[in-house]
Amino acid sequence: MTDKHPMDAHMTETRHRPVVVLTHRVHPLILQMLTDTCEVIANQSDSSLPASELRRRAADADALMAFMPDRITAEFLDACPRLQVVAGALKGHDNIDADACTERGIWLTRVEDLLTEPTAELAVGLLIGLARNIAVGDRAVRARLAGWRPTLYGSTLVGSTIGLVGAGRLGRAVARLLSGFEANLLYCDPSPVSGEEDLQMERVELSELLARTDAVVVCAPLDVNTLHLLDRPRLESMRPGSLLVNVGRGSVVDEVAVAELLRRGHLGGFASDVFEFEDLSRPDRPRDVPEELRAMQDRTLFTPHLGSAVASARLAIEEHAAKAILQALAGEVPDGAVNRPQRTASPVPTPAI
């Protein structure tokens, strides 16, 4: 295993071993899992590789383990003629061109379930933190608390009406966690949820959901239908003083409109773990969180994409992606495949373990 370019000193003697490029830090166990049979080009730093360096490393790669900050385009894939599999250590794969992978005979895999429960847990935590002014209260204590005062009165989840925008695995997981608060749960999704009665959820149109709820939790993925699904008109249709939490994808929500409605006092608060500038599939994405939004500390609560940032979950996610790589290189259908390549290269020979 090396952090250097694969075409250096080891290339001649290890070409019979497939080259696997890892774009971001992984656990040592994953490195060992792959280096048993592959030449691994790792990035164990805290930073993403510059695009030019990632392309250089991947030029002769047989497999790539990709993460959310990576943008895998058709042009990128054309520069990697040996590539057989892109294994995403992620759930939403809008940053990877799935069609381009399919057309070039490259498997694309993702991790479907392992991110769900940790992200749902964070969603509820953000909702509680926003409703109960936890971050604001923390700052008050650190600024030398004078003692109890009749301030920072918030709202409660108990008995409230909460809307879920998106009721896939994540939305349903959030619903299960919220059931303990005896909340009235509404949801909006293109497809009805199987067993919605067991989850005590009511399916309604988005307009009704926004008009009836005290808080809205966005759990929807990003696609052409959900880009700015919550735009200014829809945000203005929410109840005055209601709360908004986003753990789906940043660009499902119009952040500039959120800032405006917070400033006007129409929205009571906004919490998010995901942001528009992260959505690499958008060529017009902003380059940062809006300054006005970041400045509103008393009515916002932000986390740096911590949805799946649980040590055990991250290890399992990386292990899933590593297994998918080994399966694809062995000529098997990899776990978590989201495509069926039109043409698949021959298995890369690997030495016996």
From TrEMBL:
Its top-level enzyme class, in one word, is: oxidoreductase
Protein family according to the UniProt entry: Belongs to the D-isomer specific 2-hydroxyacid dehydrogenase family.
The protein's organism comes out as: Pseudonocardia autotrophica (Amycolata autotrophica)
Q: Which UniProt keywords apply?
A: Oxidoreductase
Record carries keyword Transmembrane: no
Entry's EC annotation? 1.20.1.1
Instruction: Tell me the CDD domains matching this sequence.
Output: PTDH
One GO cellular-component annotation of the UniProt record comes to:
cytosol
Name recorded for this polypeptide: Phosphonate dehydrogenase
Q: Which residues form the D-isomer specific 2-hydroxyacid dehydrogenase NAD-binding domain?
A: 124-307
Q: Start and end of every D-isomer specific 2-hydroxyacid dehydrogenase catalytic domain?
A: 20-339
Taxonomic lineage is:
Bacteria, Bacillati, Actinomycetota, Actinomycetes, Pseudonocardiales
* Superkingdom, taxonomy of origin: Bacteria
* GO function term, MF aspect, one: glyoxylate reductase (NADPH) activity
Listed PANTHER family: 2-HYDROXYACID DEHYDROGENASE-RELATED, GLYOXYLATE REDUCTASE 1
Q: SUPFAM superfamilies under this entry?
A: Formate/glycerate dehydrogenase catalytic domain-like, NAD(P)-binding Rossmann-fold domains
